Amino acid sequence: MVSGLSRRFGAVWAVQDVTFMLPSRSVLLVVGPNGSGKTTLLRLLATALRPTSGGAAVFGLDLIRDADAIRGLAAFVGASPGVYDLLTAAENLRFAAAMYGRPHESVMPWLERTGLAEVAPHPVRTFSQGMRRRLALARAWLTTSRLLLLDEPYGGMDRDGNQIVDVMVAEARRRDGSVVLATHEWERGVKIADTVLALAAGRPADILPVDRFTASGLAPVTGGRR
Amino acid sequence: MNGLLRAAAVARKDLLVEWRGRQTTTATGMVALLMILLLGFVIGSEPGRAAAVLWVALGFAAVVGIPRITQSEVEQQALETLLLYPGSREHLYWGKSVALLIMLAALLVALLLLLGLLFSVDVWSHWGALLGVGMLGIVGLSAIGTLLAALVLHVRGRELLMPLLLLPLALPVVLGCVRLTEAVLADTPAGLWPVVLVAFDLVYLLVCPILFEVVMEEV
Amino acid sequence: MRTQTALGAAAVLLLAAAAYVGLFASPPDAFQGEYVRIMYAHVPNAWVAYLAFAITFASSALYLWKRRSGYDHVAHSATELGVLFTGLALATGSMWGRPVWGTWWTWDARLVTTAILFLIYSGALLVRGLSDDPQRGARLAAVIGIIGFLDIPVIHYSVTWFRTLHQPASIGPGSLKIAPPMLLALLLSLLAFTVLFAYLLRLRTSLARLEAGAELS
Lengths: 226, 219, 217
Known about the structure:
The complex is a heterotrimer of chains A (226), B (219) and C (217).
Chain A: E1 2-9, E2 12-20, E3 27-31, H1 38-45, E4 53-58, E5 61-62, H2 67-73, E6 74-77, H3 89-99, H4 108-113, H5 129-141, E7 147-151, H6 159-174, E8 178-182, H7 186-192, E9 195-200, E10 203-209, H8 219-222
Parallel strand pairs in A: 3-8, 3-9, 6-7, 7-8
Antiparallel strand pairs in A: 1-2, 1-4, 4-5, 9-10
Helix pairs in contact in A: 5-6
Chain B: H1 2-21, H2 23-43, H3 50-65, H4 68-75, H5 79-84, H6 90-118, H7 127-151, H8 158-169, H9 171-186, H10 193-215
Helix pairs in contact in B: 1-6, 2-3, 2-6, 3-6, 3-8, 3-9, 6-7, 6-10, 7-8, 7-9, 7-10, 9-10
Chain C: H1 2-25, H2 39-66, H3 69-101, H4 109-130, H5 134-164, H6 180-216
Helix pairs in contact in C: 1-6, 2-3, 2-5, 2-6, 3-4, 3-5, 3-6, 4-5
């Protein structure tokens, strides 16, 4: 439940008056051109940023007051993977698990699901960009979060990588979780989404169920250009 | 218990990354070595000067090395991820300051050995006491250094601010450790210096973790 | 506005009185001659600086606790004034030392401590000014305000003890016996500068509040 969520940087409103409801077991696709506020919106929901005004309730928890509790329930995968080059894939995940209070669990299942099982003992600096993004996904996956926030997950991924994203989203949904997915590759997004929120210059331009969303629906957002 | 686990995980991670990359230890080691050589040459290498040279060199090495604790996270773009793990950010403070402590301790040992060689001071017979004094100083430096490393992250002119803030604030550590090291080497009484150092360490170990949380808050 | 004007008027009157007493009515020192009169500016400057830093500490702590911007405005203003008066204290200390002891700087423990504080609190102002976000800058400056103040006694003692073991303490600007008429002049001067500080603090704080309001609109 997001109401009137707004955030400005200096004099520029990156996100303004965003309001929507996200039930469990549903996927919200956020579309819009670059600079429309998709990333800012996701970061606000992840509690990486504080709203300038407005608020949200995530599973009944207040976005500002209960930020730490929300962090235990949400997982954010940003545009940059944020993995440690000098550690191996397995070490990266073990660190993340330890930070979630689960240091002794095996991380292999998550590496297998993201197709990284073979390179588990290799340092991340030998990885390609696509592999690093998969590792970032594995890190979010192992948290078994109830709110998955994905920012441009399809960027820099090959076909197998895209499939992994879809599987991850489907699995989150099965677990009674919700997903917010921001991308400008909306053709991919609409395949797994339930609702679409279109942002233009930080403001919600339209919000509708996915079956009513078409390419022309995107026109007001992109100014008529694709 | 969870906090201890998280702090330990952070310390382990930092040390592991450092071990594999050795960026911080190389930078601090180089600065310290250069300072010792320069100072030893310019102001003389009599045994009486050894303590002062040691701690001035350590101070400047700390100025160079401390920003790396947080800078390394920024370079990997891992800072936001680190801050989004659930749990108190104080655990991050403890993990990083312990890792820094260990790195500075390694540097201290190396410098003490070097000092023994270059300044003809007898480090061997006072080994334990010298390490003890050194640890008192290094605990203070890491306590306040970890906080400052986080503080200067979001400020322009980082390279100027770290020496400007760290050296005046940590001055009692440098002064106290110089006099105490001298006292150890000359077998003279320590006076009230241990009190100064312990007071500094305790106050900042108490206050800095809390302020670290404030500094790392999202904006 | 009334309190402000009253304070300002009081400050001017007291400063005039202190100046008269300090420069004319009080006797010259047996040893230093007329130069002792610089003390009537130097000591109050240092006193006001320390007062300012104490206020910075309190308002910084309150700001971090309650997060009301009013506290931040006070902290900001107090830090600025603190740096100003620390600078004045250093300058007057230097001016005092030159004719009396022949040096521009005496490495006296109090002067060194004052110089260190000058650096720390200038750092606080820099941190505030160079931050990419004003709210974060305020928070970081508050952190410096707190750790800086906690350091003051430790710095003072370590600087004092650092030299006493190796040299006889040189007679610093502060180690004089004070005769009653000079004491009166000094106290008057202290009062005058304190009132001046209060006036400036109020002025600067309301200015900060206005600035913050203007930025938002």
